[in-house]
């Protein structure tokens, strides 16, 4: 059976206002899979494309779900997803911090391509603001989807940059990078819970609110296919459980990211437990509406955790180029397409999800704005797979204006830090404890060339690799 796959490249726009195909660039994958037909011209099948639900955790480590090895507490909902779908073992965020990864997910492009290398200066970045005019939500709307987001945004503070201006039909959530889970006050001392373009004084524990509005969005859907981004705050700081008192009040501002209860580990466990319950409630809502069989559900995280989270068997945490900062859980369920209980170990990255959503929706990227990811549909359906030797790249600028970078190809990963290049064999040494650069100079040389060629296309990055000792 043929499937639409590979890197998603931009075409001529490809859809009119009603979202109907104007050319024969391959029939939508959902038709191929559901009906077993081949590509046709306009109107090649009228079957409804699948709904898409993406559940995005904030700072959830690779080792947090039970199905990834956690034995400290149980995560039955995430385990259910893995049992009913596919678990990825080599899935990566596009950055070790949140803004670049979320930007990559929304645009389908490596964040560095649009000069997004870190957290600082994002809202004054002309390349980034231009790229936000062409989000995946807009691509899917052109294909006839209703689009919604609940929870964290973190891609703009002004009304002009809110989700409703980024081609989402529905939004309930917050703009900041983190929020008091009880008072809904951000680190600047502002109330930051919104209903569309208006602030809302709605009460409730943040994880519960995000779940409730995700369920309401699903419950209210009609016949039109939908894309829903459930963008959780958990388990990002401040560490608060559902029975805690507020930590922040309006007007104080400059709150620390280290706010937490003395029994931090207990609070963290409570937060992850409530997050997992929320995943279960979303799955239950799809069941009640009879939508489970027609919905692709994906769960992942925007980056690795702070040092309180679980990254085993990897080393490193959020902001680092080690596996613990970049490699995250990813689970996908699509009944009758994905084999239950399957596992995939091909290296993949979050922009692949964007390409996948565009693929299954039968949507098109915008002309001149090619997507950097590859569709995972062949992988999900086991009709094919990604090239295990496909190189993956990362470049991160810290708040101290230091650049960190990494490239992975196959089992080899080269980390660039402090004008050094360190080589690791991830198959033999997933914890990155043994630098093999001196033993394999030919591998180092090849990876440096790949990284330099990639960086030469990026604003503000081309000189970085030239500063490493390998060159």
Would you kindly provide a written description of the structure presented here, covering whatever features stand out?
The chain is an alpha/beta fold and 471 residues long. It has two domains: 51-380, Alkaline Phosphatase, subunit A (3-Layer(aba) Sandwich), CATH 3.40.720; 392-467, Arylsulfatase, C-terminal domain, CATH 3.30.1120. The protein is built from eleven helices and 18 strands. It has a ten-stranded mixed beta sheet with strand order 8-7-6-5-9-2-10-11-3-12, with helices on both faces. A hairpin with a 2-residue loop joins strand 16 and strand 17. Residues 1-46 have low confidence and may be disordered.
Largest sheet: 10 strands, mixed
Q: Would you state the CATH class of the largest domain?
A: Alpha Beta
Global shape: globular
| Helix percentage | 10-25%
Mean pLDDT: 87
Strand order of the largest sheet: 8-7-6-5-9-2-10-11-3-12
CATH H-level homologous superfamily name of the largest domain: Alkaline Phosphatase, subunit A
Short description:
The protein is α/β, with parallel strands linked by helices.
Outline the secondary-structure elements.
Blueprint: E1 6-7, H1 29-35, E2 51-57, H2 76-84, E3 86-88, E4 91-92, H3 98-107, H4 126-131, H5 136-142, E5 146-152, E6 170-174, E7 194-195, E8 198-199, H6 206-219, E9 226-231, H7 264-288, E10 295-301, H8 323-326, E11 330-333, E12 342-344, E13 348-349, H9 350-361, E14 374-375, H10 377-380, E15 392-397, E16 403-409, E17 412-417, E18 420-425, H11 441-455
Parallel strand pairs: 2-9, 2-10, 3-12, 4-13, 5-6, 5-9
Antiparallel strand pairs: 1-14, 3-11, 6-7, 7-8, 10-11, 15-16, 16-17, 17-18
Helix pairs in contact: 2-7, 3-9, 6-7
